Amino acid sequence: MAKMKLVVFLAFLASLVVADLLILRDRLTPATMEFTENIKRSCTSIDIIPGSDPNFNITYMIEMTCRKQNMRQKRFTEYFPVLSWLLKQHNSRNMEKEDQKYIDMLEFSDKMLYLEEVLEMPSINLPFDDIANLINWNGTEIIRYFNYPLGKIEDAWAALAKRTLQCDKANRLEMIVCGNFNPTRRMGLHKIVASIGHFSSLGTVFKYRNISTHAVLYDGKLFSMDSCRFLKNYYECQISRNTTCTVTSPENCPVEVVMAPTKVFVREYVGDYSVVAAVAEAYQTMIHGHYSTHQMGISQHVSLLLPIGSYAKFNNVKVFGKSLNAFDHFAVNTEADHLPVSHEDLDKLEANYGNTEEVLRHRALLKSEFSQFLDRNLMLIIILLTIVFLVTVTIAGVSITLRKKNFQSLPVVLYSNNKVTIIQ
């Protein structure tokens, strides 16, 4: 039933694709998507089945290490006979002597020593790669239990809330894991989306639509996400239930208005991306010591992915790179709907920034624009008002004429000597 609900809801969302995408990160970064209400917190115990190694007996190493761990616990109870009785444990010194030769040998084994360290590690610091290499284990059991994508054990491991490695009573390894189980989890491609905004005519106020910055491309369609977190190799995302404001219908999203006194507005995104809007014809970059100049494009927006130590300069504002290796930048040549600044927008700015000089200038500009509108369209307004007046007078005259005609056609009633006479 949950799977059917997911398919139906995704089909409904896909039908809302009517608007062009504004900015889309075209990287092949995988992402899972799921509904929050379908997530179930679950804990389980998984028996660790080690792989084979022709040069090393992994099973024997695990058994000896676990026996040593278990014997440490038994020796602890020897000092407390009451605990030994409560736990129904008995001294077995003969067994210790019998196994001492194995313990003495294995204590010199680096692998055994490290396994002992791992068994003592807190859950949060438990390293999957080291465990996998130590016992030749691929963690498939975790992927299957929590319904994570096959071959993505490192991401599934990072998503777990608890992971504790311990020895069972049979001297074998087991792992206690807790995480989010979701049978409706789907795999797609993660995308970063940014809306295209507009500057005011003065260039110091910027207005844009507040849309979700995360989306997942699944089955050829784009879906909005409420949130995403990066694990190791892919993103884990929650699908948005908002079917009105989506990344493919930004015209239905709320509008944000901010001050931009430098005529530059910068928005930061995951993946070390920045989207810069600027009132400028060109911008300069400095990448690995090389300087160059680039045109802004019709949208006045630029997408930046610059390495650390590099920057892009817009007017007198420098935007520094944060990427460790990759870099890219391009002007966005996509236009969006025009978003003029209104008196309501200026009221919001005044509430957030105070009655600044820029707010006053924009209010004066709105009044001036309204006056210019009246001047340009005065004759048209007079003609429209004249037509409205003539139509109103005509309708009133027709109404009066009809009333007179109806009044004249009414019968006359005469009262005389207790008699009533009706004259048609």
How would you summarize the topology of this molecule?
Blueprint: H1 2-14, E1 30-34, E2 40-47, H2 58-78, H3 81-86, H4 93-106, H5 110-120, H6 128-135, H7 140-146, H8 153-159, E3 162-167, E4 173-181, E5 186-192, E6 198-199, E7 205-209, E8 214-218, E9 221-230, E10 235-239, E11 255-259, E12 264-269, E13 273-278, E14 282-287, E15 290-295, E16 301-305, E17 311-314, E18 317-320, E19 328-332, H9 343-353, H10 357-376, H11 378-408, E20 412-416, E21 419-423
Descriptive terms for the model:
disordered N terminus, single chain, four-stranded antiparallel β-sheet, alpha+beta, five-stranded mixed beta barrel, 424 residues, 4 domains, elongated, 11 helices
Give structural notes.
This protein is an alpha+beta fold. A hairpin with a 5-residue loop joins β6 (198-199) and β7. The chain is built from 11 helices and 21 strands. It has a 5-stranded mixed barrel with strand order 1-5-8-9-10. The radius of gyration is 38 Å and the shape is elongated. The model is unreliable at 1-20, 75-95 and 370-375 (pLDDT under 50). α2 (58-78) crosses α4 (93-106), α2 (58-78) packs across α5 and α9 runs antiparallel to α10 (357-376). It has 4 domains: 40-181, no CATH class; 186-332, no CATH class; 343-376; 379-414.
